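Question (not urgent): is this output format expected?
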Amino acid sequence: MSRGKESKPHIGIFGRRNFGKSSMINALAGQEIAIVSDQAGTTTDPVKKTMEITGIGPVVLVDTAGIDDTGALGKKRISRSKAIMKQIDLALLVVNGNAFDQEEEQLASDLESFHVPFIIIHNKSDLQPPKGGYTQKLELRYGKPVISFSATTGWGREPLIKALRDHMPRSAYEAQSLLGDLLQYGDLVLLVTPIDTEAPQGRMILPQVQAIRDILDNDAIAVVVKERELDMLMNTLSPEPALVVTDSQVFPKADASIPPHIPLTSFSIMLARHKGDFQSYLQGTPQLSGLNNNDRILILESCTHHVACDDIGRVKIPRWVNNFSGKQLHYDVVSGLSELPRPITDYSLVIQCGGCVLTKKQVSGRIKQAIEAGVAVTNYGMAIAYIHGIYERAVAPFTGKKQEGLEYL
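Got this back:
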């Protein structure tokens, strides 16, 4: 399985051609990582580079094509640049020569529609500094800082770094606990982790590793077992688990083996609460019972990987949904952060994976279009639990609803 997109805060750099976006990235990173040329349109596809910002940590800088590109190919480049807005946590809007015209106004409007905070950078200020109240006017209009900067001399670099620290959403770089609010000191958490053909050779999958680390960070105890040894372990395990987290594919086995009074959920549902729009997932999952013949379902994978013969997203989930619904359904699978093959309104349901290799903003950006269009969204683990009749139990640890007379929260 590939690492997929970087799960670090993403900073997108936007502006017109030849406004010095690539030069600014090089100045920020302190090395030549983006191609710089006097020829307009040098940057064609988004270019990414990781750097460290004190107070934030590692971030990914994303250089984009000019928003004033021309021709049929130019329109495609602009479209790709705007698509990046769904993935970034903070934007730098680069301007020159005291200009802020229709292109910049549209760009600011697009960023605001995606709820992306942005900073306005007046680049090449060593050649033509802001004048005539330019800075004050923009700051008053947008409530955003305007930083005078020179990519050539590096002038303004420290104020820009400070602005990045001040305006980067803390949620983009401060680690949020996966399970901490469910655990107390010394609690035992049991993780049920099948080792099958999809498991990577010699290691655990990322959500399992993330869960183990989070449990340890919360001063609790992690016990890991395969599903085949689960019954044997439960007969001898003491104290009993405060929580059991299972791979979604063995939900029925875990449900049967774990006593009803012990909270049970899955790695995917854990990630759905941590990174996704959990309330929208809760509302959308029951749409699995309302599917009709010839409905189309969109399955969103986070990462690109070799497709196994029994792949969870491409094979197992469609098979389970078909059997559950008894309908003739159609499926589109989109991996990574690729564009959709058809309009979102063509779909009756969107099933998003856990998103272990994505940032919260990237997961939100992927499903935002569906939510706004009124298309039901759910998550791999929540869909699997619903299909197997254990949905209420699986989400109960995160909703506080009663299960078998007990409250989990």
